[in-house]
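Suppose a classmate hands you a notebook page containing two proteins, each written out with its sequence and a corresponding row of structure tokens. How would you begin to make sense of it? This section walks through that situation. The first entry is reproduced here exactly as it would appear on such a page.
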Amino acid sequence: MSKKVLITGASGMVGHYLVEKCMDRGYQVIATDLRYNEVFDKHHDDTFEFVKADLRNFNECKEVVKGVDIVFHVAGVKGSPRRAMERPNEFFTPLLQFNTNMMEAARLEEVEWYVYTSSNGVYAPSDRMREDDVWKTSPSDNDKFAGWAKRIGELQSECYKVHYGSDNISIVRPANIYGKGDNFGEGSMVIPSIIKRVCDGESPLVCWGDGTPTRDFIHASDVADGILLCYDKKVTEPINLGSGNGFTIKELVETVVDIYGKTLLVEWDSTKPNGDPIRLMDTTRANKYGFSPTINLRDGIKEVMNYYNEKL
């Protein structure tokens, strides 16, 4: 029999890729979110169902998980580090509610497997973020509230293992995710923010800091592949999903401007904060399980720029 899977946050960047990949596998898919994604319009048979659900409500979580074999919990709150610092409760409380409610509902329904999407925000600043180092440190002050909320979800899975002896939860920690369907509005992350400003012809393009902070970026489609890999191989240890390669913010801006193909004046405002100097994932464990991203940063950015110009 085909597996029945629930994908939370299905309308988001990673979620809609997961829907497509699960449909390609012949799974019966229940997609849930607070908003509908137009990419679902092509699914009209009895193997796909969209259910609007508010995961802050435990009763709605219990209802949507009934009869499900696998849960891919991708729902989250996306926004810039600045927004996370200035308006932290838009991240902290909803994340606690989403994560706690869904994992407990899945436990009560006795789902076969659960994949929990954590974040690189659980890590302290480090030249190389390694999975087993998380609980030796605390999240960066720049990621304090969202980082701790994600950590609590990871701790919940450990709690179940101790209390019930269950060992059916995978934890993935993606790097900085980008892709089609990203948020290009207020409080957006660095890649969509730069793409919007460049494609809108903003000149001079004034960027915060000095451009030296280094980040690890991964395309949403690759994250979806990593999530499915964790289910396929029944990975029960936390796993980083990243490229393992660092790009400075300056390199990122230069790449976007180069693809844009027109001359733009770029200025760096060093009076503004840089954020953590480096956030780079160690991908040794992911590579051991056979994970390797397929979309390089330049190609991925070009795809997102085309999406922005065509859709928005």
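The notebook's second entry, a different protein, reads as follows.
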Amino acid sequence: MIARASRLLRQSAVAAHLARSPGFLVASAVLACLLVAAGFAPALAPHHPFDLASLDLLNARLPPAWLPDGTRSFPFGTDGQGRDVLSSLMYGLRISLVVGLLATVLSVVAGVVVGLVAGDAGGALDAVLMRLCDVMLSFPPILVALLVDGVGRALLPDGRDGLALGVLVLAIALTGWVPYARTVRGATMVERQKDYVSAARLMGASRGRILFRHVLPNVLGPVLVLATLQVGTAILIESTLSFLGVGVPPTSPSLGTLIRVGNELMLSGDWWIAVFPGAVLLLTTLSINWIGDALRDALNPKLR
């Protein structure tokens, strides 16, 4: 009861701090607009950019509407195939957000479980799991993602495009779980020494119930901050892989694919094809990281 009351007090203090943070409010508003645009893309997008029957090559490489030769039908212009850039951004952002969120959720689940087990068990099991974390930290996330993608292409040469999203999520999550595991392990080693854990043991609670019912809620603060920051990192990794041509298939391009396509036409003067996807990627990751920084400050009593 005391631990629950303490958590409620902390939550109210965190909420009050966030409500007074202009940066958090602005970043939340920007992210909310992007989420609405991506989530309701079929209803809000002026055109369906991936419907080949609706494309017209006569509309290819039109500039934005406010420039000469631009048209209101294509506010942000068109690409080399006549696709509306604004509509492509909405649909591409959906894919980038889905990959980032799924990779983060998978990383959080795996990292929290490993951290709880390592922090509670100790001994040889703890040492083995932490050495595994050290090994995973020695590999750059982009390199691991390229390796997993290459293995997926070799094992599934025909059905790889259908499983591209899952392979991409797995590739990003393979290194993303390590910070959660190390953070949760340290917090678990502190929490298991407290009185409420001893009281739960005396009442006959099982080890699993103590970990997931009592310890886990008290170590979720840092995990929430890490998860918020990793969403932006996962989106950047996915965009990098798509820019390199090993991400999602071209039939359903993400922001990275759109930037790669636009980059090929930059020297021709068609800057809008690459600049607008890059700006959306920047706004998305910046707003997510800003929210994560605000959460970190709010959850730190000294900074609050």
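A careful reader of the second entry would note: The mean pLDDT is 81.
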